Amino acid sequence: QVQLVESGGGLVQPGGSLSLSCAASGFTFSAYAMSWYRQAPGKERELVAAIGNPDSFTKYGDSMKGRFTISRDNAKNTVYLQMNSLKSDDTAVYYCNARRNTKDYLRDYWGQGTQVTVSS
Predict the structure, then answer these.
(1) Which residues share a beta bridge with 25?
(2) pLDDT reported for residue 48
(3) Residues with pLDDT less than 50, the chain
(4) Which DSSP state fits 56?
(5) Which of 7, 97, 99, 104 is 20 to 30 Å from 25 by CA-CA measure?
(6) What's the pLDDT score for residue 53?
(7) Of the candidates 22, 107, 26, which has an alpha carbon nearest to the alpha carbon of residue 73?
(8) Distance from CA of residue 33 to its chain's centroid?
(9) Torsion angles phi and psi, residue 92, rounded to 5
(10) Is 33:52 a contact under the CB 8 Å cutoff?
(11) Are 5 and 12 in contact (CB under 8 A)?
(12) How far is CA 84 from CA 38, 74, 76, 81, in A?
Protein backbone atom coordinates (compact mmCIF):
# COMPACT_ATOMS: atom_id res chain seq x y z
CA GLN A 1 0.00 0.00 0.00
CA VAL A 2 1.41 3.34 -1.09
CA GLN A 3 1.65 5.95 1.64
CA LEU A 4 2.99 9.48 1.70
CA VAL A 5 2.81 10.97 5.17
CA GLU A 6 3.59 14.65 5.59
CA SER A 7 4.61 16.19 8.89
CA GLY A 8 6.04 19.41 10.25
CA GLY A 9 3.33 21.87 9.41
CA GLY A 10 2.03 24.41 11.88
CA LEU A 11 1.78 28.05 12.78
CA VAL A 12 4.78 30.30 12.32
CA GLN A 13 5.30 34.04 12.39
CA PRO A 14 6.28 35.98 9.27
CA GLY A 15 10.00 35.72 8.72
CA GLY A 16 10.17 32.41 10.52
CA SER A 17 11.12 28.94 9.32
CA LEU A 18 9.52 25.51 9.11
CA SER A 19 10.77 22.15 7.97
CA LEU A 20 8.38 19.68 6.38
CA SER A 21 8.97 15.96 5.96
CA CYS A 22 7.28 13.36 3.81
CA ALA A 23 7.81 9.72 4.67
CA ALA A 24 7.11 7.35 1.78
CA SER A 25 6.33 3.66 1.72
CA GLY A 26 4.86 1.06 -0.58
CA PHE A 27 6.87 1.87 -3.69
CA THR A 28 10.49 2.15 -4.83
CA PHE A 29 11.19 5.63 -3.51
CA SER A 30 14.53 6.06 -5.26
CA ALA A 31 12.90 5.56 -8.67
CA TYR A 32 10.49 8.46 -8.24
CA ALA A 33 10.73 12.19 -8.63
CA MET A 34 9.45 13.85 -5.48
CA SER A 35 7.72 17.18 -5.21
CA TRP A 36 5.96 19.51 -2.84
CA TYR A 37 2.85 21.34 -3.97
CA ARG A 38 0.64 23.73 -2.07
CA GLN A 39 -2.91 24.96 -2.28
CA ALA A 40 -4.26 28.03 -0.59
CA PRO A 41 -8.01 28.63 -0.12
CA GLY A 42 -9.60 29.68 -3.38
CA LYS A 43 -6.43 29.11 -5.37
CA GLU A 44 -5.15 26.38 -7.65
CA ARG A 45 -2.59 23.87 -6.49
CA GLU A 46 0.90 25.06 -7.41
CA LEU A 47 4.35 23.55 -7.53
CA VAL A 48 6.56 24.49 -4.61
CA ALA A 49 9.65 22.41 -5.34
CA ALA A 50 10.67 19.20 -7.06
CA ILE A 51 13.67 16.92 -6.85
CA GLY A 52 14.60 14.19 -9.26
CA ASN A 53 16.67 11.05 -9.00
CA PRO A 54 19.35 9.86 -9.50
CA ASP A 55 20.85 13.17 -10.52
CA SER A 56 18.71 15.00 -7.97
CA PHE A 57 17.94 17.98 -10.16
CA THR A 58 15.82 20.53 -8.34
CA LYS A 59 13.15 22.95 -9.48
CA TYR A 60 11.34 25.67 -7.55
CA GLY A 61 8.32 27.82 -7.99
CA ASP A 62 9.28 31.42 -8.72
CA SER A 63 8.16 32.82 -5.37
CA MET A 64 10.03 30.11 -3.45
CA LYS A 65 13.46 30.50 -5.04
CA GLY A 66 16.10 31.45 -2.51
CA ARG A 67 13.82 30.77 0.45
CA PHE A 68 12.89 27.10 0.17
CA THR A 69 15.15 24.06 -0.18
CA ILE A 70 14.05 20.59 -1.17
CA SER A 71 16.14 17.52 -0.38
CA ARG A 72 15.73 13.77 -0.21
CA ASP A 73 17.20 10.86 1.71
CA ASN A 74 16.74 7.68 -0.26
CA ALA A 75 17.96 5.57 2.64
CA LYS A 76 15.09 6.88 4.76
CA ASN A 77 12.52 7.10 1.94
CA THR A 78 11.92 10.69 2.93
CA VAL A 79 11.76 14.03 1.19
CA TYR A 80 12.16 17.31 3.02
CA LEU A 81 11.24 20.92 2.48
CA GLN A 82 13.08 23.60 4.42
CA MET A 83 11.17 26.86 4.33
CA ASN A 84 12.81 30.11 5.44
CA SER A 85 11.73 33.75 5.43
CA LEU A 86 8.12 32.70 5.43
CA LYS A 87 5.45 35.16 4.34
CA SER A 88 1.71 35.26 4.88
CA ASP A 89 1.31 34.31 1.20
CA ASP A 90 2.95 30.97 2.00
CA THR A 91 -0.08 29.97 4.05
CA ALA A 92 -1.52 26.86 2.41
CA VAL A 93 -1.91 23.13 2.67
CA TYR A 94 1.34 21.54 1.52
CA TYR A 95 1.17 18.23 -0.30
CA CYS A 96 3.85 15.66 -1.02
CA ASN A 97 3.85 14.07 -4.48
CA ALA A 98 5.68 11.08 -5.93
CA ARG A 99 5.77 10.64 -9.70
CA ARG A 100 7.30 8.16 -12.08
CA ASN A 101 6.69 8.64 -15.77
CA THR A 102 8.00 6.03 -18.19
CA LYS A 103 7.11 5.15 -21.76
CA ASP A 104 4.89 2.40 -20.37
CA TYR A 105 3.11 4.00 -17.43
CA LEU A 106 2.59 6.99 -15.21
CA ARG A 107 2.47 6.58 -11.44
CA ASP A 108 1.33 9.61 -9.44
CA TYR A 109 0.86 9.48 -5.67
CA TRP A 110 -0.25 12.17 -3.23
CA GLY A 111 -0.12 12.64 0.51
CA GLN A 112 -2.96 13.97 2.64
CA GLY A 113 -1.34 17.36 3.13
CA THR A 114 -0.12 19.38 6.09
CA GLN A 115 -1.30 22.86 6.98
CA VAL A 116 1.20 25.71 7.10
CA THR A 117 -0.06 28.99 8.51
CA VAL A 118 2.11 32.09 8.50
CA SER A 119 0.63 34.71 10.77
CA SER A 120 1.55 37.06 13.57
Answers:
(1) 3
(2) 98
(3) none
(4) -
(5) 104
(6) 81
(7) 22
(8) 11
(9) 180, 170
(10) yes
(11) no
(12) 16, 23, 23, 10
